[in-house]
Fold each of these.
Amino acid sequence: MPGPVSGLAVSEDGVWVSGGDDDTVTLLDATNGAVLTSLDVAAGGCNQPEAITVGASAVWVACRASGSVLRIDPQTRTVSALLATGGAPADLAADDDGRVWVAVGPP
């Protein structure tokens, strides 16, 4: 996995890793570290993925440079939505009811 790691989140599927410099989100096998999926999130409008969290039915990524939050469907392992934040998201958290909270700084 090229580039520095900017965030980690653990799910039933494995370990989700966001990379800030190469605009990727990667799903790793939790037992052996093998790459299960690698997504080019820049293609979905997410630049500089800063943080990542797993909720009830989604993986959420804070996209700092693009001022947005990306939603990944963990079942299909594809980008399913991009939401503008009006600033630079730095961190986020999700709950089991499908809600996500985003800490946003100035653009």
Note: The first strand starts at residue 5 and ends at 10.
Amino acid sequence: MPKALLQLELALGEGVSDLREISDIIKSDVGLTAQFLRLAFQESHRASDRVPSISELVIQIGTGKLRTLLKDTPSVSTFLSSSVSSACERFWMHARLSALIAEELASQTTGVQREDAYLAGLFCHFSSLPMLLGWEMADQETRDLGYLTAELACSWGFPRQLVEVIHGSRHSCGTESRALLDIAAAASTWAYRLEFLAARESGTCSALVSPSRLERG
């Protein structure tokens, strides 16, 4: 989203960069986080099994390469129609809300780290993006978007646990990934409820479209 890119530009333009501020800006935007994880993999050439710490990756990558990433990352509004851009904005907001709720749910359970849960919530509907962005795909691919986007995330160097969350199949998840998937799914459900209540209060319920309608079921 344009706001996240602007915030990151301002944070990187300061004389002394604030690590926490930069990490929080990256994590606030699902697209920016995806691009950042791709960059981290390109720099290390090594995918991780576990969900990484964004702040640790920021230190490893450095502000110079973050500035290059910022320069090479366009906002969705620059290449999408206004209607699709609005749908993307709703998707981004839902991802962010799901992530925050997942983080809170993790604080009430044992065995799941808060940041791990946050990133799982952020990416739990990642398989909806190809349809949302209007990618041209064969019928077979649209029937299994979870597998398609999981393979894409794997090729980008996403950690295995996040790849399994994106795939969305509990049967193919390891124990830790299954716990993340369950928290992310619960968080997404709560996010939809809150969005529905907010939309009902503002009279815009018809504008809400669940990404689950775009998924493989």
Note: The CA atoms of residues 127 and 145 lie 6 Å apart.
